[in-house]
Write a structure and sequence with these properties.
The chain is an alpha+beta fold. The chain contains 4 helices and 10 strands, in the order H-H-H-E-E-E-E-E-E-E-E-E-E-H. It has a single domain, classed as Rieske Iron-sulfur Protein. The protein is 17% helix and 31% strand. The strands form 3 sheets. The chain has a 4-stranded antiparallel beta sheet with strand order 5-6-7-8. The longest helix is centred in the first third of the chain and has 14 residues. Bound molecules: FE2/S2 (inorganic) cluster. The site of FE2/S2 (inorganic) cluster has 11 residues, from loops. FE2/S2 (inorganic) cluster binds next to loops.
Length: 172
């Protein structure tokens, strides 16, 4: 799919976007589930910044397939922890890469939706799927400590990336 299709997806109704989003995640599952480490979504060109570590309260009891909102690195920085059905953890900043609004997880479509300009990110990798954002959601770097405690220890500021519809060859 070429970049001309971005305009096509920007015109989709919210319902169509949700359907498209869920379908795309399912169709690309083989590609995306290959990652077994929460930090593998960090690419070499991303900028990694370490912050004072903070324990993510409640992470150890998070059930597979569930999510948990938290704040990191400050109380004013919304973030989300996701636990896949395989038990794998991932965390993202919830600050939209377009203009900084807080994105919300839509569990039914497995997407993050931005209320400000309808930007949409996939929940598995944080990649842009629709709208004006041109960067993925930033990744919160995680560390598992003794007793299964999960700590946030830094943030990877992600650079421009291919729109996910291009990475998986679009949907038909
Ligand atoms: S701030 Fe999220 S799409 Fe503009």
């Amino acid at each position: 799919m070429d970049r001309n299709h971005e305009g096509d997806t920007d015109q989709l109704s919210p319902t169509t976007r949700r359907t498209f989003c869920a379908g795309l995640i399912l169709s690309s599952a083989g590609l995306l589930i290959a990652s077994t480490n929460a930090n593998e979504v960090i690419a070499a060109q991303d900028s990694l910044v370490m912050y004072p570590p903070r324990k993510i309260e409640g992470a150890e009891t998070l059930l597979p397939g569930s999510s948990l909102y938290f704040n990191y690195p400050t109380r004013n920085d919304p973030a989300v922890l996701l636990r896949s059905t395989d038990g794998e953890y991932r965390a993202y900043s919830r600050r939209c890469s377009h203009a900084g609004c807080s994105v919300d997880l839509d569990a039914s479509s497995r997407c993050f939706q931005c209320p400000c300009h309808q930007g949409t990110f996939d929940a598995r990798m944080g990649h842009v799927m629709f709208g004006p954002p041109r960067r993925p959601l930033d990744v919160i770097v995680l560390q598992v400590r003794a007793g299964g405690q999960l700590w946030a220890i830094g943030k990877s500021f992600r650079r421009d990336a291919e729109i996910i519809t291009e990475a998986v060859g679009g949907v038909d």
